[in-house]
Amino acid sequence: MQPHQLNPQIADDFESVNRFILDHLHSGVPLVEKIGHYIVESGGKRIRPILVLLAARSCNYQGNQHISLAAVIEFIHTATLLHDDVVDTSDLRRGKATANAKWGNAPSVLVGDFLYSRAFQMMVELNSMPIMSVISNATNVIAEGEVLQLLNCKNPDVDEASYMKVILGKTAMLFEAATQTGAQIADASPEQEEALRLYGRHLGIAFQLIDDVLDYQSSAEEMGKNVGDDLAEGKPTLPLIHAMKHGSDEQRKMIRQAIRKGGLEDLEPIRQAVIETGAIDYTFEQARDQVNSALAQLELLPQSPYRDVLRQLAELAVDRRS
């Protein structure tokens, strides 16, 4: 079940967001529209804009600006995907060829820039300085997280704390911005805004932790990307960090070497090492802890169907295959 199918009212909002996104992809440059439509329409759960809708509605928002705010968040997310695929030299996302694989790196980067700037045009129209402050800070932190991840690539000495700092910036920050600005647009109380901000942060961390597990558990068809992509790029994710810490000398040496050189030559024995050392279970436990922290924040919100969906989304974060 897709997130927007959990509540019929959210389904209506979700369709409005999709229409709004497509209406704002217009450009006088045909290639911009072509790549923009390709990446936006290539699937995905749209979980970040859905979080905006749910956060606003859970605080009893009755207007329609949450639709454009959700589109802003999705445009920013899509821009980061275009840039990430270039940096990571990825050729598959959501089961389709990446934009850079189809059109090249330069057009992908530039269309990513277009989506960023269009997001800020749309955000200005919301006429909310608090929302602008949250989103502008989030985009800055996301960029720093991506650079930090780049610096950590092919470094087997990255520890768990450094890894968590990366995913807090590159993934959790936009989840956090989605739920916090959803609360802001609804004029929620300071306590409710903070609760939704933290809910988004913990959910985003859990989401990324499960992503990192799926790199060693799922098939390419389930994930929509190539299995072992993180290992191929030399990314020291939590399953690898835990396996190096608790594995045998032989396993530790093999994983360190694989991170240093990148590539998939040792994918199967590394997968086995990750399982044998309990790294999969450990990462799932960390994700569950984050989900429990997210769920605790919902107690500060009034009871509503929207709060119930936020609870269901958190549960789904640790029970998915893609």
What does this structure look like?
73% of the residues lie in helices and 1% in strands. By secondary structure, the chain is mostly helical. The longest helix has 26 residues, at 160-185. The protein is globular, with a radius of gyration of 19 Å. It starts with 7 loop residues before the first helix and ends in a 5-residue tail after the last helix. Supplies octaprenyl diphosphate, the precursor for the side chain of the isoprenoid quinones ubiquinone and menaquinone. It comes from Motiliproteus coralliicola.
Please provide a brief summary of the model.
With 322 residues, this protein is mainly alpha-helical. It is built from 16 helices and 2 strands. A hairpin with a 2-residue loop joins strand 1 and strand 2.
Keywords:
Farnesyl Diphosphate Synthase, two-stranded antiparallel sheet, 322 residues, mainly alpha, 73% helix
List the helices and strands and how they pair.
Blueprint: H1 8-23, H2 30-40, H3 47-58, H4 65-87, E1 92-93, E2 96-97, H5 99-103, H6 105-126, H7 129-152, H8 160-185, H9 190-214, H10 220-223, H11 229-232, H12 238-246, H13 249-261, H14 267-276, H15 279-297, H16 305-317
Antiparallel strand pairs: 1-2
Helix pairs in contact: 1-3, 1-4, 2-6, 3-4, 3-8, 3-16, 4-6, 4-7, 4-8, 7-8, 8-9, 9-15, 12-13, 12-14, 12-15, 15-16
